[in-house]
Amino acid sequence: MTGARTVAAPQEYWERYYAEQFRFGLGTEDILAALVQVPPIHRWADLGCGSESLLWAIALRAERLVAVDADSQRLAILREFAAVERPRGIHRTALTLCGRTEPDAFVNRCRSLKATVVADCLTGAPLGDSILAATKVELVTQFGLLGLCSSEQHFLDCFAAVHQLLASDGWAAGANWVARDLAERVELTEPLYWQAAANAGISLLLLRRIPSADPEFPAVWTYLGRKRHP
Questions:
Q1: Which residue from 138, 180, 205, 226 has the highest number of Cβ atoms inside 10 Å of its Cβ?
Q2: How far from chain centre, in Å, is Cα 81?
Q3: pLDDT tens digit string along 169-184?
Q4: Structural domains in the chain plus CATH codes
């Protein structure tokens, strides 16, 4: 998540959704199940990451993570949590769900966080001066970021922009929650996703709208795809 339009302030959001107990029925388990399909990769960029990258990292096998968000407080929570190297309840359940039973599984995920970058990926702010400028990445993710777009065109533009970081044959994965109150938010639809993926050169392998028990966000779209060769 990113920016001021999220449902809660950084610490409140972290405690509400990513505290001790794994909340089944919100789509989280479905997102993790999609992410475990991604093979081991070297470089991963999580855009609009909020404080939650290490939950998704459990499902993935990535050596180097760069976490990007517009909110420095959310990035600070992420860095502090990674430094402690101790999973909360939600992470312990995720480790079990993803079959990550090796003793150092969570510690290794924490140590994969190599950098955090303050940037608003919804405004097209350049990442050219960041660590991401050096080489293309093998995986780009976003969880909640593009659901904050204000219109279909904004969604199409941002989807294309964030995947410019992706190497050919690289992986794209993410999820966007459907707000009950769509004020200032794009209405997410299957045709919109297919058009965005086509524009960005992404071949979708998975696209699902999953019901959620969260009354504020009654559904979540999740997707998985590969970047086509030019």
A1: 138
A2: 17
A3: 999 999 999 988 877 8
A4: 10-227 (3.40.50.150)
